[in-house]
Amino acid sequence: MDIIPGAWRRTAAGAGLLSPQGEVAPTIFAEMSAAAVRTGAINLGQGFPDEDGPSVVLDAARDAIAQGANQYPPGRGIPDLRAAISEHQQRFYGLDVDSDTEVIVTAGATEALTATLLALIDGPDDEVVVFEPYYDSYAAAVALAGARLRTVALRAPGFQPDLDELAAAVTDRTRIILVNDPHNPTGAVFTPQVQAEVVRLAERHDAIIVTDEVYEHLSFDSPHVPIATLPGAAERTLTISSAGKTFSVTGWKIGWVHGPAALITAVLTVKQYLTYVNGSPFQPAVAVGLRMPDAYFSDARDALRAKHRLLGDALSAAGFTVHTPQGGYFTVADATALGGTDTAAFCRALPERAGVVAIPLSAFVSAGHRADYAGLVRFAACKRTEVLEEAARRLSALHSTGSTR
Question: What CA–CA distance (Å, rounded) separates 367 from 347?
Fold first, then answer.
């Protein structure tokens, strides 16, 4: 007896959720993290920091536990965190957000995104436009919602979309334009022209804009500009972010989504049947974090930019061609000169060759387009300086000998 419905099996397989044998498909992230453990390699594959966030935020979580914040919080999130999110959006971007009707606290940005897609997709004729390469959960969430995924390529060196290709992708079938800015995995920050075109196309085709802004405080060259701040955008934009990247607490899974009350109500209707609520003692701690002085946010940005510089210099010295990121956790480098045209094979061999783990950019690309990203590899810079320095030492062996640590 086949207890998994055929429609689900076909959808899941098409999104890469199932192997050809119908089993759960292991991700490249799990495979490479296992390789790091097996070989003792430095894991620059997955994007999680290896040091804790600010002590004032961690202490606030301990205090909340001690003071009894250990039961279900309100379904929308505790009022103080929702107020802090509203204050944060006003303080940094001049956005007016009603904390009572226009904000939901979620189990990280991934749940916010999934609940949004499940809430707003009407049927299989709806399309979701994303920029490719894309964070791997996007395709899975679109598949779960039963919509079609349409991609717009981001090409090296700048990883900005061609505006004509973007205009061709957005049609009257487009329900959602999903924008990740600063962008994972490429490290791109979209230009004002790209942002304006997204808004223009959304208005023309009556689409909703959903933004993933988890790296909002890690934009290196200029302050982050949410699409919701552009003229005509706020009434059709749902803005998603989280505490994980900003405060180096990725395991807390505290995210949020804000936007027009009617859209937020639709998202809440779905969200209440996913996790309902989460992270009760972490929510007041994140509220403390969002109210930290400006210096914390600028210092965190500057520290990560310096780590990217260290990593980029090491990759260049090892023989990679480096695409300097404009924001986020990741540096993309071209391994072609090191024999890395098949980047999946290159990354699988890298732990043994150099004692370092990375992720092929093809892991973030739909099956038909992987050849367009041959040679490109993603490295995480969000590690301690001494870890990156050791990674640099190990990577240097690639250029000089092409072999081991």
Answer: 18
Question: Where do we find the tokens 């004002």?
Answer: 192
The CATH code of domain 6-52+295-400 reads 3.90.1150.10
- Please report the DSSP string for 234-277 in residue order: GGGEEEEEESHHHHT-GGG--EEEE--HHHHHHHHHHHTTTTS-
Rg of the Cα trace of the chain? 21
Instruction: Say how far apart CA 228 and CA 287 lie, in whole Å.
Output: 22
Residues of the chain with CATH 3.90.1150.10: 6-52+295-400
Q: In this model, does residue 354 exceed pLDDT 70?
A: yes
**Kind of pairing between the strands at 359-360 and 376-380:** antiparallel
The CATH 3.40.640.10 domain(s) of the chain lie at 55-293
Residues 6 or more apart from 316 whose CB is under 8 A from it?
A: 322
At 79 the three-state DSSP class reads helix
264 touches 86 (CB < 8 A): no
* pTM (predicted TM-score): 0.93
- Long-range contact pairs involving 27-34 (C-beta distance under 8 Å, separation at least 24): 27/136, 27/363, 28/344, 28/347, 28/359, 28/360, 28/363, 29/136, 29/359, 29/363, 31/348, 32/347, 32/348, 32/351, 32/357, 32/358, 32/359, 33/357
On whether the CB atoms of residues 358 and 378 are closer than 8 A, the answer is: yes
Residue 296, token pair as written in the block = 């914390």
SS3 of residue 323 by DSSP: strand
Is residue 9's pLDDT more than 60? no
Q: What percent of the chain has pLDDT over 70?
A: 92
Q: CA-CA distance, 218 to 203, in Å (whole number)?
A: 29
The residue with tokens 């991934």 is 110
Decide which of 3.20.190.10, 3.40.50.970, 3.40.50.620, 3.40.640.10 is the CATH code for 55-293.
3.40.640.10
Q: What is the pLDDT of residue 282?
A: 98
Q: Do residues 324 and 310 make contact, with C-beta atoms less than 8 angstroms apart?
A: no
Of 232, 238, 237, the residue nearest 255 (C-alpha): 238
